[in-house]
Amino acid sequence: MDRAPSPYDFLPPVPSFQASSHDIAEGEMLAMPHVSGIFGAGGEDVSPHLSWSGPPDDTKSYAVTCFDPDAPTGSGFWHWVVYNIPATVMELANGSGTQDGSELPDGIKQLKNDAGLVGYLGAAPPPGHGPHRYMFAIHALNVENLPINEEVSAAICGFNMFGTTIGRAIIVPLYEQM
Fold this sequence. Notes:
Elements: E1 18-20, E2 50-53, E3 61-68, E4 77-86, E5 91-92, E6 109-110, E7 132-133, E8 135-141, H1 154-161, E9 165-171, E10 174-175
Antiparallel strand pairs: 1-2, 2-5, 3-4, 3-8, 4-6, 7-10, 8-9
């Protein structure tokens, strides 16, 4: 399978900073809790723990996204979008991406993923389609809040992050269904 390019290759370059997780690792297979049950892949749709350090000094907020560029859609697949994360928050706990948002700190918002559901949707590539990349990105922004509401798409969120993103940290685990 030919791999789709990273969506971040088409954006202006920004400095990177450190991302880490107790649950996921670069190039490693996702564990079953982070795979989709909603889409029938046998998982639990539990968002992984994410933490970060060393962002640019003028960071005023963060957004966290999970994107599968390898989805057979022609436009990839957004699994999770979290925004308006205060600059003082440097970690999201395992399971914080619930549909009701009750596990997120106050004021942090989530958008609908490409399945039309709010919160984190685990990996569910088509069986036999090969390994997919799940790009968990932490975007450091120079604005406290994005000028969007919870009804917009992930693409509109990304459009509003364009020009305000001053740093990015990425962890890219994989998942494949045989």
